[in-house]
Design a protein that fits this description.
The chain is mainly alpha-helical and about 425 residues long. It has helices at about 5-10, 15-20, 40, 45-65, 70-75, 85-95, 105, 115-125, 145-150, 205-215, 225-235, 245-250, 265-270, 320, 350-355, 390-405, 410-420, and strands at about 155-160, 165, 175-180, 315, 330-335, 340-345, 365. The chain folds into two domains: about 15-35 and about 70-250, Cytochrome Bc1 Complex, Chain D, domain 2, CATH 1.10.760; about 255-420, Orthogonal Bundle (Cytochrome Bc1 Complex, Chain D, domain 2), CATH 1.10.760. Helix content is about 35%, strand content about 5%. The relative contact order is 0.14.
Length: about 425
């Protein structure tokens, strides 16, 4: 989205399948088993159609996987074809690497691939000593207090500062601790090679190694073969949000925007189609940043950098609005030409990785997430400030109202949400 204007204006196959079906990344495979139809549901023609559709999808998924998971993974990731997925599952779900008791599954839940405040509250009620509330999940990073996790479900992330970047008021600091949400593993990393909210990890092995060291406080460094098995496991069916995503990953069938059935869904679709701005500027508005096969990159119509297709990082005013009230720091970036860029922000995002605060795709910018499966991956934005898709729509109404003449009405927001819920 047009962040620069905002800144200026407001500053064995069967056995494997059976075992993996219980694994992390989703409580169910990409298509859930079809439940029995009650008399009340069967009496509804619309519900009967939905039920029939689910049965067809289940059958299609079974046929898709009949050749074996390894063979399907090899379509996109041949290097994973011979790895032991069952070992990968065990490493993902149970291995602590002699750390603080956390596993990958601690923070990447089976259903959403992340953790929401509701998840945290439920787990705290069941066990206040759950590993989720240790280390960077605690209020002070030392294991004391769980208020932030219970209210926001954010963790404390330490980012090393580039040599030419400093914090005004603490110029000697060479790192900073920021509050961020936990990126979902749903459809990522299998269908998205940009990892972490700021894109700082170059590949999945580096990400897994960093997570075990930083979040799990591992005392035993994972071996390369273990990291590869974890990576391979994250390409198994339960890490995809739908049959649509599974088919894209396993046989290359590109996802298409659904047409929508209700009037609200049909109206909402206009925001997500690739189209040049015209008229009230609402058609294609969301597609400016949510385009491409995964709905996670800019298109050629975006009226802000990169002014082209393929951009993966943008600011949409989340740090600027700072709805969560995170601590605001004054940042100082020394530029190559000798000038200095100084600004206040609770989290400069991608700029702390690139070291360039003059780049609109870096300053307060974060990775554009995919919209496929978004209804399952709440909360939203890098600071978890949007708890629901309705909150997301309200944020964009405020954002576009601040940077443009676009006014998103309540009906517009409802239609956007109705359509996003279709993006399975």
């Amino acid at each position: 989205m047009p962040s620069i204007n905002f800144i200026r204006s407001v500053g064995s196959a069967a056995a494997t399948l059976a075992l993996l079906g219980c694994g992390g990344g989703g409580d169910t495979p990409a298509v859930a088993p079809t439940p029995a139809v009650s008399a009340s549901v069967a009496s509804s023609a619309e519900d009967h159609e939905v039920q029939a559709h689910r049965v067809r999808e289940q059958q299609e998924q079974e046929a898709l996987l009949s050749t074996g998971v390894h063979a399907r993974i090899a379509f996109r990731k041949p290097e994973f074809a011979l790895l032991d997925l069952l070992k990968g599952r065990r490493l993902f779900e149970r291995e602590t690497f002699d750390g603080n008791g956390r596993t990958c599954l601690t923070c990447h839940s089976r259903d959403s691939g992340t953790v929401s405040p509701h998840d945290a509250q439920r787990r705290f009620a069941a066990d206040p000593n759950d590993p989720l509330f240790r280390a960077d999940g605690s209020d002070d990073g030392q294991g004391n207090g769980a208020t932030r996790m219970l209210e926001e479900a954010t963790v404390l992330v330490r980012i090393a500062l580039p040599d030419h970047v400093s914090i005004v008021g603490d110029p000697g600091a060479r790192s900073v601790v920021l509050r961020r949400g936990i990126p979902s593993t749903l459809n990522t990393p299998a269908l998205d090679d940009k990892l972490m909210l700021d894109g700082r990890q170059p590949d999945l092995l580096a990400q897994a190694r960093g997570a075990t060291a930083d979040h799990a406080q591992a005392q035993r460094e994972p071996r390369t073969d273990e990291l590869l098995q974890i990576a391979a496991f994250q390409h198994t069916p339960q890490f995809f949000s739908s049959l649509t995503m599974l088919k894209f990953a396993y046989i290359g069938t590109k996802p298409q925007l659904p047409s929508g059935r209700s009037e609200s869904e049909k109206r909402g679709r206009r925001f997500f189609i690739d189209a040049a701005p015209s008229g009230d500027l609402k058609t294609g508005l969301c597609a400016g940043c949510h385009s491409g096969d995964m709905l996670n990159e800019t298109n050629e119509f975006i009226p802000a950098p990169p002014f082209a297709r393929g951009g993966r990082f943008q600011s949409v005013g989340v740090s600027e609005f700072n709805e969560t009230g995170n601590p605001v720091l004054q940042w100082r970036f020394k530029n190559p030409d000798g000038t200095v860029t100084e600004f206040a922000s609770p989290d400069p995002g991608r700029a702390l990785i690139t070291g360039d605060a003059r780049d609109a795709q870096a300053k307060n910018a974060f990775k554009i997430p995919s919209l496929w499966g978004a209804a399952r991956t709440a909360p939203y934005f890098h600071d978890n400030s949007a708890r629901t898709l309705d909150d997301v729509a309200r944020h964009y109404a405020r954002f576009f109202g601040a940077i443009s003449p676009i006014q998103l009405t309540e009906q517009d927001q409802q239609d956007m949400v109705a359509y996003m819920k279709l993006l399975k």
